[in-house]
Description:
Elements: H1 2-11, H2 17-30
Helix pairs in contact: 1-2
Amino acid sequence: MQRLAQSIVDVLPPGDKERALYENFLVGSRSLPVPTQPVETADPQMKLF
């Protein structure tokens, strides 16, 4: 998602409102901690059997 946001920022002109939103998203996403464990996407009920 960050790569897409950066690509959009790169093509929008400075001072554009949408560019500012994506720049803020990028700043916020870079400050998030990296997950240490993989997120399980399997249905939890499938583990019952």
